[in-house]
Design brief:
The complex is a heterodimer of chains A (633) and B (317). Chain A has 633 residues and is α+β, with helices and mostly antiparallel strands. Among the domains of chain A are: 135 residues, Beta-Lactamase (2-Layer Sandwich); 130 residues, PAS domain (Beta-Lactamase), CATH 3.30.450; 168 residues, Heat Shock Protein 90 (2-Layer Sandwich). Helices cover 55% and strands 20% of the residues of chain A. In chain B, strands 10-9-11-8-12 form a five-stranded mixed β-sheet. Chain B has a three-stranded parallel β-sheet with strand order 2-1-5. Chain B has a two-stranded antiparallel sheet with strand order 3-4. The longest helix of chain B has 25 residues. With 317 residues, chain B is of the alpha/beta class. Chain B is built from twelve helices and 14 strands. Chain B is globular and about 60 Å long. Classes of the chains: A alpha+beta (633), B alpha/beta (317). Chains A and B meet through α2 and α3 of A and α9 and β12 of B.
């Protein structure tokens, strides 16, 4: 088992070490990556800020170029031959009725063409053109309507009259309009002004790049006075417009300033703002972006900290994995070992069960044989009893026959005895007949109940006497002296009396055989003594039965084997070797003990001790009612 | 008159000597062809009314390259109008180019010259076409030899000079007669290009009675070349009808200027032979339909977009 477990443990240690090294390498690699990531995040953050700034500057340059182009457009149209010829022809005195209408028509077509052709990805740049004379009278209106009252710009400004187109801002209720105004000169004389309204939507959509809806970033144009020009559709820009003067007052860092603005109904958020002036324009491009978008929701240091936690988690996870893996391997090995042992145990269990089965079969056979032997032995005992019984029956039969013949002879001789004598003799005959009936019943009961486990409370003296009676006549006929010394007191024992009788018969038979085997020249009378008495044992009173003979006795070796089954010193036709063995089992079955004391050449004593039945046991037995002798002795 | 002719020839001899030779050659060739045609047949070539045109299967359109009515590429307002008319009739369209001198003769088969209020028939002429449509102004003498359709275009004759001309445009008074007189009053010793037998014929406007120096533009030349001739300083000014001025002012803005009107508002129309009343009627029906469904207005706007500036009532529904 230990050897078997060594291999997976060794493998586990190697695997654990390998996993640990891999995890440490992984953590180190993660740390390295996070270090690089930290640096790259910092660089990315700076780069994003720079890009945001550069993007604003780029768009500011684009706007500058856009407005320059618009100035150029207006300047070119104002200097076009169509407008030039109008003012020249006008100056020459041409009337609208006779010719100038065509000039104005042509100018109108030029302006319409400009509106149609100047587009950015399909979106028009110019919303409207207006050509007015130097007094402000509208000559051509691309919108088709003459609305002199709408022209609120002071045309005769130094900047305009200097000859260069200029950008102006017209504040209206709807917002701020962006206008380009170019003076129209012919020669050195000012003829009028060409005015254009730029489409705010086009500017914002393509140059300012204002978001159409709620977004994290956006742009607008700011005027010199701090006003913010927003596309009319962008409500979020309006939120910035309200906060813009306050935001502009913030301290700038890296060219940016920050502030908290609530876009629409959204909660206030922190924004980064940049303001890039547009060259040669009274405008600045204001761009804002949500701080989180530039700097991220998590700072690089927080990411580093997070990576540290991640590494710790990985190590812990690896440790747990390692632990679970090791446990799993151990459990697997143990499981396999247990499975193997279970198989072995199963095999052994099957073998054991087979063995038990075989033993049970053998025991059954043995029991059967034992029963058969016992029955055989009992039959042998009965056979041995038969001689004694025959003697026992013969005596009364002889008496009955004698009395009957005597009576018969007397009657035949005519000397009939008196009636009292006849009655006395018949009474003797009846008693002898009763005696024979008793003997026959006893034999029948013996044959039926000997060996039965059913017990009853009996007096040992009665049992002994009954058993001795069975062989008394036979032993006497063989010249053997049978002495019976029974205890004078009641010896209550709980047993099967017929089984004990079988023991007694067996012991008496052995004693008889021992006496018949005495050496020639033995002078003492062959004698068998049957004694009963009571004595104290360790567990209470004992009823003792002792059968002694003064026969040949036994050697200690033989004495040590006399209770072994099938051990006998007799000829095969005289003994089975089971008599004492059965006697011992019967005695022990009733809680008793049987012992032997023998000395070769002197005789043998078989002593049987039964525990005396207590008063309590006796009370249970209703068949016996002994009041005077409540216990042995 | 003779003096002015000499003056014009004197200038043209210097600037376009080849033009004169070609003109003479063309005249000789035309006379030769005319003579050949007259000798064998002794009568005008065929010219018919609607039935004959339908039978012949083609409509012959007489025209002269002139402004945007008939361009040098043989497109223009009148070309498209006649093509539509031919299509309406279900006949083929055929363009026949003519000259201002012969275009009436090409239509009616007779050479006719106005002499004051009278007409002089100079001879027979083969009929070349079925209808004149070339920005043809309705003039009194023309109404005597041809039948005009309903008005196709408003016009008038103005005096045009170079942009740097010292002539000052008239200030409109609201009275066209006074404006015309103001223009005439400015013509003293001013050389003016005119074109005989056309709407720019000085006789139509009494310019002979002024002190203007009339310079007759060769009749074989394109009327459109008169303004460039003035810009080339071949004359101080030129008569020009309004449709041409509309295009010229757009083409050369600042280089020419209009001094004022020489005529009252005139009308242009298509001319049909007096022998083709059914054709005229069919055309008038066609023209009315075109005006009604907007087809004609689209054609006018295509070639003369600014005409509605000057004549806001023109084609007004």
């Amino acid at each position: 088992m230990i050897e078997q477990m060594k291999t997976p443990s060794g493998m586990n240690r190697k695997s654990a070490l390998a996993i640990l090294i891999v995890c440490l390498s992984l953590v180190g690699f993660i740390g390295l990556l996070m270090g690089f990531n930290y640096r790259s995040q910092e660089a990315l953050r700076k780069s994003t800020l720079m890009r945001f700034r550069l993007d604003s500057e780029k768009r500011a340059v684009a706007l500058e170029y856009f407005f320059s182009e618009r100035k150029y457009d207006l300047g070119s149209i104002a200097a076009s031959k169509e407008i030039q010829s109008y003012f020249i022809n006008k100056a020459m005195g041409m009337s609208e009725q006779y010719g100038l209408k065509v000039s104005l028509f042509v100018i109108g077509k030029v302006l319409e063409k400009t509106i149609q052709e100047r587009v950015v990805q399909g979106d028009g740049i110019y919303a409207r053109f207006l050509l007015v004379n130097r007094e402000g009278k509208v000559l051509v209106d691309s919108a088709g309507a003459v609305e002199e009252q709408r022209l609120k710009i002071a045309l005769h400004q130094p900047g305009v009259e200097s000859g260069e187109p200029a950008i102006f801002f017209e504040r209206t209720n709807e917002g701020v309009n962006i206008l380009v105004i170019a003076p129209c000169f012919y020669g050195s004389r000012l003829g009028g002004f060409l005015i254009s309204w730029l489409r705010i939507g086009t500017i914002f959509d393509h140059f300012v790049d204002s978001p159409p809806a709620v977004s994290s970033k956006g742009s607008a144009l700011s005027l010199e006075d701090g006003g913010l020009i927003c596309p009319p559709t962008n409500r979020e820009c309006v939120s910035f417009r309200k906060r813009f003067p306050d935001l502009m007052a913030q301290e700038r860092k890296e060219g940016l300033f920050s502030g908290t603005v609530a876009l629409g109904d959204a909660p206030p958020q922190e924004f980064l703002l940049s303001s890039v002036p547009i060259s040669k324009m009274p405008l600045s491009l204001v761009s804002w972006v949500q701080r989180e978008e530039i700097q991220g929701a998590v700072t690089p240091s927080e990411m580093l900290l997070g990576a540290g936690f991640l590494a710790v988690f990985i190590l812990l996870g690896a440790g747990l994995l390692l632990r679970y893996n090791t446990l799993n391997l151990l459990l697997t090995a143990r499981f396999k070992q247990a499975e193997k042992q279970q198989n072995i145990l199963g095999e052994k269990n099957r073998q054991l069960q087979d063995e038990i089965h075989r033993r049970q079969e053998a025991e059954g056979k043995l029991e059967l044989q034992r029963t058969l032997r016992m029955r055989s032995d009992r039959l042998r005992s009965l056979g041995e009893m038969a001689a004694g019984i025959a003697h026992e029956l013969n005596q009364p039969l002889v008496g009955v026959r004698g009395l009957a013949e005597l009576l018969l002879l007397q009657m035949e001789s005519g000397k009939a005895p008196p009636k009292e004598e006849i009655s006395h003799k018949i009474d003797l005959i009846v008693r002898q007949a009763d005696r024979m009936v008793h003997i026959i019943n006893h034999v029948r009961l013996f044959a039926r109940d000997a060996g039965n486990e059913k017990t009853s409370l009996v007096d040992l003296n009665d049992v002994v006497h009954s058993g001795v009676d069975l062989l008394r006549t036979q032993l006497g006929s063989q010249g053997l002296m049978l002495e019976e010394h029974l205890f004078s007191e009641y010896l209550p024992v709980q047993l099967n009396p017929f089984s004990v009788e079988e023991v007694i018969l067996n012991l008496l038979s052995n004693a008889r055989d021992a006496l018949t085997e005495r050496k020639d020249g033995e002078t003492s009378t062959p004698r068998i003594q049957v004694n009963t008495w009571s004595e104290d044992g360790t567990d209470g009173k004992l009823a003792i039965l002792q059968i002694s003979d003064n026969g040949a006795g036994m050697t200690p070796e033989v004495a040590g084997k006399v209770f072994d089954p099938f051990y006998t010193t007799k000829a095969p036709d005289r003994g089975t070797g089971l008599g004492l063995s059965i006697a011992k089992s019967i005695v022990e079955g009733f809680g008793g003990k049987i012992s032997i004391e023998t000395k070769e050449g002197e005789g043998t004593h078989f002593t049987v001790a039964f525990p005396c039945s207590s008063q309590k046991d006796r009370n249970k037995n209703e068949q016996i009612d002994i009041v005077e002798n409540p216990d042995c002795g | 008159m003779e003096k002015s002719k000499k003056g014009f020839l004197g200038i043209s001899a210097k600037s376009k000597p080849i033009l004169e030779k070609r003109d003479l050659s063309l005249c000789l060739l035309a006379l030769l062809v005319f003579g050949c045609l007259l000798v064998p047949f002794g009568r005008s070539a065929w010219g018919g009314d609607l039935e004959e045109i339908l039978k012949s299967g083609k409509l012959r359109h007489l025209g002269i390259p002139y402004a945007n009515f008939i361009t040098a590429e043989k497109t223009g307002l009148d070309v498209e109008l006649m093509k539509e008319f031919a299509s309406k009739l279900g006949v083929k369209y055929e363009y026949v180019e003519s000259t201002w001198k012969n275009i009436v003769a090409d239509l009616i088969g007779k050479v006719v010259r106005p002499e004051g209020e009278k007409l002089m028939v100079a001879g027979e002429h083969p009929i070349q076409g079925d209808v004149i449509a070339t920005g043809f102004t309705v003039l009194p003498w023309r109404t005597k030899v041809v039948n005009f359709s309903e008005m196709t275009f408003p016009t008038g004759v103005w005096l045009v000079t170079r942009g740097d001309s010292p002539l000052q445009p008239v200030v409109p008074t609201g009275d066209s007669s006074r404006d015309i007189q103001s223009v005439k009053d400015k013509l003293s010793n001013v050389s003016v290009l005119v074109l005989q037998d056309s709407c720019l014929d000085p006789a139509l406007y009494g310019l002979e009675k002024t002190e203007a120096v009339l310079k007759y533009f060769p009749t074989g030349q394109n009327l459109d070349d008169m303004i460039p001739a003035v810009m080339a300083k071949m004359a101080d000014a030129t008569l020009m009808d309004v449709p041409v001025i509309l295009t010229a002012l757009q083409r050369w803005p600042g280089e020419i200027k209009v001094i004022g009107p020489v005529s009252r508002t005139q009308e242009m129309a298509c001319a049909f032979p007096e022998t083709s009343p059914h054709l005229l009627s069919a055309f008038n029906d066609f023209l009315r339909q075109c005006k009604k469904d907007g087809t004609y207005r689209r054609l006018v706007a295509k070639y003369y977009p600014s005409v509605f500036v000057f004549y806001p009532e023109f084609l007004k529904p």
